[in-house]
Amino acid sequence: MIRKQITSHYSVSEQISLDDVDRLAASGVTLIIGNRPDNEEAGQLAFAEIAAQAEKNHIKALHIPFAGGQMQDSDVVAFKAALSTADNVHAFCRSGNRSSLIWEAAHQSMQTKKTPNKQFDVVIVGAGTAGISTAASLLKRNTNVRICLIDPAAEHFYQPGWTLVGGGVFKAENTRRNMVDVIPTGVEWIQQAVQNFQPKDDYVTLENGDVIAYKQLVVASGLKLDWDAIEGLSDALGHYGVTSNYRYDLAPYTWEIAKNLEGGNAIFTQPPMPIKCAGAPQKAMYLSCDHWLKQGLLDDIEVSFYSAGAVLFGVSDYVPALQTYIEKYQVKTHFTHNLVKVDGPNQLAYFATKDENDQTKIVEKSFDMLHVCPPQCAPDFIRNSILVDDAGWVDVDKETLRHKAFSNIWALGDVSNSPNAKTMAAARKQAPVVAQNVYDALAGRPIRAVYDGYGSCPLTVERGKIVLAEFGYGGVVMPTFPSWLNKGTKPTRLAWILKEDLLPPFYWHGMLKGYEWFVKPTMRH
Asked: Where does the Beta-lactamase hydrolase-like protein phosphatase-like domain start and stop, copy by copy (predicted)?
């Protein structure tokens, strides 16, 4: 059980065991609340058994179950009443998320509505690719709409460029801009972090205490790279040959290691989904291998790809082309192997997998180079809000991107639970959809713009060639260009030119300025 302390008197966790009940009682908990319905999954411990174990420990247990995304006002009322009867409460569900959400809902209902410090037509949380693009697209439709972007970051990054930084193609500094220089003219930027949401009162509270009111709210906060989820990783990064193209300051180190490595073990890892740009862990590997091959070093370097997943790439149409490069570079693939620990000084990586009896075992592997893709989740202030589903992502309709419970809230980019690949290309396609729907909602018109799940992953299989993977919901291949111009599932020079030469200026001077080339929203009639 991983116990998360929400306040000094309230904690949450995933499903607990009978031994956990004993430990909770010993720690001073006086009430256990179960927010998970019985029989939600096979083998789940019945709440009656937990209640009986709690009674043996002379503490209370109360069942307030609800399915993910289906919390009712009556649940909140019962939860508040329960909190008033105990001074140290622990609640659980499948992941701990529902128990966080019901506490947040109860906490908000006990607060009085605050007077806003500022009011806007549209508040956008997050000034990354998705947030800025949505603001710019909105202004293209109505220059008079009052918009604010809320984000504490001082810098903005073109993150797709970090793959090429790690391959020695781009300089890292060319992927960075000052945030103030990319905020659209006419949009107010509030350089603060959001503390929580009050969707029933139409405002957000910032960490400095300010209250910002809205007519329409767009959540585009991105996701959290959870480096600390892997034991020892944070301390090892940037040293001992441990690197990651998922960080601006580390992508140059990837290239430094690759160009200086003349032999030994090179390991590239991929965690469980979802992650942003699922092809990025492989891109780092292919570009490094291409360099070693051209330098005549590949026979002296054992290259391994350790993935927590079961397949090379989630869209099967692109696997044959990728498999050709796996064979060309002599890569040893290890699926269903999840990196759980890094010993930097001794250059050892540890992976959790299953043996022939389906029991967990740990595999130890030495390395000279270790490129890590970290586990990823929604930011803490999002996961602890009332806006999310049971997995912690903002709960939206996958076509309109409107929140399922709050009609004036929208989400796009990496933070939403729409079942598309989390890529910049997806955000590029989503931004006009959200902008159009928010524009219509402000005018009192029915919303009509829909998102088809489009995402793109330019898989850099060698320097000078890319497999341009483009697909929508359900893994349906959705090429932008005709087959005579782009070979689709095959590596091409044209796709490399697109990635290296065309997309960066298109990003800075087109996408962030609200130009919707190739991504005009589809309108439902």
From this structure: 5-105
